[in-house]
Amino acid sequence: QVQLVEPGGGLVQPGGSLRLSCVVSGSLIRLRTMAWYRKTPGKEREQVARISPGFATSYADSVKGRFTLSSDNSKNTVYLPMNNLKPEDTAVYYCNYDINSWGKGTLVTVSS
After folding, report:
1. Which element (helix H / strand E) includes 23?
2. Beta carbons of 89 and 108 less than 8 angstroms apart
């Protein structure tokens, strides 16, 4: 059974940075596509970033140039460094593995 743990959320001021991590157990991240989603009340869940087994990445327009997905196969971990954070980035962020496996989510709050 694949399990995903997402340390790294928290409170940050506008313009600040934060790095999310997704630690995967039960399978290898290099074999499947991984993605980060976020959800805020009243809005649809949004895919923020995605990385394929071939390391191809894609990003939502709202985060391009600010978020950069990376992975460390030796740690079976995917990272999402987030820079120049804005209040509208406030959301619960979820890690996703191969479509069907989800983490519990981590709250990111961007506020002064």
Report:
1. strand 18-25
2. yes
As a whole number of angstroms, the distance between CA 109 and CA 31 comes to 32
Q: Is the dihedral of CA 48, 100, 78, 23 positive or negative?
A: positive
Whole-number Å distance between alpha carbons of 43 and 37: 12
Structure confidence at residue 53 (pLDDT): 86
pLDDT over 70 percentage in the chain: 100
List residues bridging with 109 in a β-sheet.
11
pLDDT, tens digit (0-9, with 9 covering 90-100), for 57-70: 999 999 999 999 98
**Cβ atoms within 10 A of the Cβ of 73, count?**
11
